[in-house]
Structures are given as C-alpha cells and as structure tokens.
Amino acid sequence: GQNIDQPTEMTATEGAIVQINCTYQTSGFNGLFWYQQHAGEAPTFLSYNVLDGLEEKGRFSSFLSRSKGYSYLLLKELQMKDSASYLCAVPQAGTALIFGKGTTLSVSS
Amino acid sequence: EPEVTQTPSHQVTQMGQEVILRCVPISNHLYFYWYRQILGQKVEFLVSFYNNEISEKSEIFDDQFSVERPDGSNFTLKIRSTKLEDSAMYFCASSEARGRAGANVLTFGAGSRLTVL
User: Fold this and answer.
1) CA distance A47 to chain B (A)
2) Chain-chain contact of B48 with A94 (C-beta, under 8 angstroms)
3) To the nearest 10°, the Cα dihedral for B86, A89, A23, A68?
4) 3-class secondary structure, A82
5) pLDDT, tens digit, 9 for 90 and up, residues A53-88
6) List of residues 6+ apart from B100 with CB closer than 8 A
7) Cβ–Cβ < 8 Å for B9, B110
8) Does B60 touch chain A (CB under 8 A)?
9) Inter-chain touch B42–A42, beta carbons under 8 Å
C-alpha cells in the first residue's frame, strides 16, 4: 500500500521562499504529484516528478529522490494567493492517485 | 480550457435516502474517478472507472455505493441509504492516460457538497 507523510501546517511571509516536504512509501513507484487546493475548492495539478531531480515551473519547483522516498515542493516569491493546502500524491496500483493529508500554507503580509 | 462539471453543487438529504451525484468528465478522457473529502480531512479515493467497468476501488467503496456511465457523457455516483457520516464534498475527476506510463494528470470538478441530516 501507500503511505504519505507531510507536515500539517506551515506559515510564511509574502515574498519569501517555502519548502514543503513529502515522504512516501509505495509498493511500486510510478511518479509523484503535487496538487494545490484552496479552501472549499477542488485540487488543481501543480507538478509531476518521475525521475530524480528538480522540475521547475515558474515560481514553483518540485524535487524528487526515489532512493530516499522524498519529494519537496518549493514556492518562491510567495504571494497571498498561495495560501492553500498542498497535497502530495502517488498512484495506487493503476491510475488512481492516493493523496497525503496535505500541508496548509498560510502566507501573511 | 476543458473542465469537469458536477451537479448538484450542494445537496441536502435525510438519512436513509438515496442520492445520485452527477459528473460530466472531459470529453476525450478515458478514466473517471470519484473522491470524497470530509470537512477538514484529506481527499480520499473511492473508485475509478474505465471502459465501462470499475478498475480500482478503495475500502470505503462498499455495497452502499455504485457508479454508472448511463450515456456517452455522464458519470454518476449513487449512494444508497445515506448515513450521517456520508456528509462530505464529493469530487469527480477524469484523466486521459490509458495506462500507468506517463503523467496521468487527474482533472477535478468543483465538487458536490452532500449534507446528510
């Protein structure tokens, strides 16, 4: 089965950089996903890593180490609108994603 | 941009009643999913559907639940005899991947909030 662990909450200030960590255990690895979920809204796709290393996409980057079962999401130049939950997810046996509990990020001015 | 649409956005029902939640997945997507999120908790997988049959399901998806693709566009989740603990946001999602290769990105609908009284 899958086991995903993320910090519950984080706080940061506008303009700062924040790193949200995720550790996972899966029976077979087929990539790791990050989703963003604003309160009361649906999760939206942010990034996907299947190979080790850093994937950069604008202000957001995601890193993967398969040997360590570890990923992080890096958010730069934080804005108030980045206040949201960030969900780490891995595929189950087929195509369905299993989500972690999410990290709630609060950005203050 | 293509989107997954869900109806109703909010439904209130009495305990023991049957509820049907409806979803229209993105038109060229082949995999369909239902997830639920109880208030303040994590997004939980219920079931995935491909080629007119269930491909995966979780322990939550018991005999109380069923899914159906009644026509070429709709995908429904039926909850028989609702219980108080079924109160949650139910998200439909779809993806276009045919198998395990590549980034199988799930696109979620806005959700249907179910309140069981």
Assistant:
1) 9
2) yes
3) 150
4) helix
5) 999 999 999 999 999 999 999 999 999 999 999 999
6) A30, A91, A94, A95
7) yes
8) no
9) no
Element (H, E) at B6: strand B5-7
Residue type, A68: K
Element (H, E) at B32: strand B31-37
Question: What does the pLDDT average to over B34-46?
Answer: 97
Question: Nearest CA of chain A to the CA of B45: how many Å?
Answer: 6
Q: Supply the DSSP string of B47-109, one letter for each residue.
A: EEEETTEEEEE-TT--TTEEEE--SSS-EEEEESS--GGG-EEEEEEEE--SSSSS----EE-
Q: Does A39 touch chain B (CB under 8 A)?
A: no
Does pLDDT of B65 surpass 60?
Answer: yes
Cβ contact B45–A96 (<8 Å) = yes
**Which chain A residue lies closest to B32 (C-alpha atoms)?**
A96
Residue A35 is given by DSSP the state E
Sign of the torsion angle spanned by Cα atoms B28, A34, A97, B18: negative
For residue A42, list chain B residues with Cβ-Cβ distance below 8 A. 91, 108-111
d(CA B9, CA B114): 9
pLDDT over threshold 60, residue B66:
yes
Distance between CA atoms of residues B33 and B76, nearest Å = 10
Whole-angstrom distance, CA of residue B49 vs CA of residue B30: 8
Contact assignment for B43 to A44 by CB distance below 8 Å? no
